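WARN no homologs supplied; continuing
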Amino acid sequence: MPATLINTIKEMMNSLLWWGHGRTNQRGINWLSWEKLSMHKNHGGMGFKDLTAFNLAMLGKQGWKLHTTPDSLVSRIFKARYFPSASYLTANLGHNPSYVCRSILRARFLVRGGARWSIGTGGDIPILDEPWLLNGGRIDGY
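OK structure emitted
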């Protein structure tokens, strides 16, 4: 969702759901700040969802689907259109990407942070193309 839509929904939640505006009397009581309302209940808040974080999580989920199901129709279309010579995790933004593609690629750091290798048979592991050292350097003599 665009940031403007998220802000509009948050304002509506503020005014209609909690503060009492929008009824016959236009006066509501400001019980707590929005920051306090959106904190988790374990931390003293009311547990209202942070819509920006929720949206980013949903975009990460779509990115994970692109990465783990490369044979699905949506994955093949995205790959052909936006990153034909790379994978979702290594793709560059490219020329003239759609809003959806930019958004899904923006959530790539979430997928990278949670992704782990599963060796299996080892047939799909690109041994020569992966940076095996933490600093991305090469071993002397190779």
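The chain has a mean pLDDT of 80.
OK
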